[in-house]
Amino acid sequence: MEFTLTELVARVEAATKTYGHGAGRVSALDDVTIGIPAGRFTAIMGPSGSGKSTLMHVMAGLDSVTSGRVFLGDTEITHLRDADLTLLRRRRVGFVFQSFNLVPTLDVRGNILLPFELDGRRATREQSEWIDHLIDTLGLRDRLTHRPHELSGGQQQRAAIVRALATRPDLVFADEPTGNLDSRTGREVLTVLQDAARTFGQSIAMVTHDPIAASYADHIVFLADGRVVAERPQSTAEEISSFMLGMEAHA
Fold first, then answer.
1. Where are the domains of the chain?
2. DSSP states of 146-206
3. What is the pLDDT along the chain (251 residues), one digit of tens a residue?
4. How far apart are CA 62 and CA 82, in angstroms?
5. The whole model's pTM is what?
6. How far apart are the C-alpha atoms of 250 and 232, rounded to whole Å?
7. What is the largest CA-CA distance in the chain?
8. Largest CB tally within 10 Å, which of 10, 128, 144, 228?
9. CB atoms within 10 A of CB 248
């Protein structure tokens, strides 16, 4: 599936990531060139050990490549200093984690506004209107003064999604976002991510091993043994499962 550079919100070129030395050397990424299309919901799929989480960490500037190049938009982040990477992530990247990662001492509103607090600024009027829209869309209006331990898992994940989207980041990374949720709540969260891309043009990259979760995405990247083995447009969970089984059979 070909995209031009202007259509990509993030990309890696010939990215390699190795850990250890000698006989204990492990190659988590092996000469990977791949891009995340702007305004789309992309799923990065693969079995455990395929390199999908490493790819996400490298693209988000949370880890560095052993060789190759990494870009966020037109900005090459391959050799950025830690301080510059931190600033770039804060202003241009959002994160949704399997474990929610909400601050337990803050209420929902405080957690949502945390990216602005960390950046030493207040939400603009336009951003505040956007946040209010997200809060109402995700049914959190009557939970704003509750702390994380007073919320269900689904409510916590919805709060984390609002926080990730609040600053209108260039790209949101979602790492197994439904891993700790029941199937119904998981579907609700996936629908929210899908709508964020389709309705508001938010770029989202989701790491998952779940074919049902991946079926919500517009674009699917399959990894195995640190290499990209295929890219596909939106597919059903059954088609994805079948493709994954075929990958394993040829491994």
1. 5-103+170-250
2. --GGGS-HHHHHHHHHHHHHTT--SEEEEESTTTTS-HHHHHHHHHHHHHHHHHH---EEE
3. 666 666 899 999 999 999 988 888 889 999 999 999 999 999 999 888 899 999 999 999 999 999 999 999 999 999 999 999 998 998 899 999 888 899 999 999 999 999 999 989 999 999 999 999 899 988 899 999 999 999 999 999 999 999 999 999 999 999 999 988 889 889 988 999 999 999 889 999 999 999 999 999 999 999 999 999 999 999 999 999 999 888 776 65
4. 9
5. 0.90
6. 18
7. 57
8. 10
9. 10
In the structure encoding, which two tokens stand for residue 35, read together? 């891009």
Structure tokens at 53: 């989480």
Instruction: State whether CATH 3.90.79.10 applies to domain 5-103+170-250.
Output: no
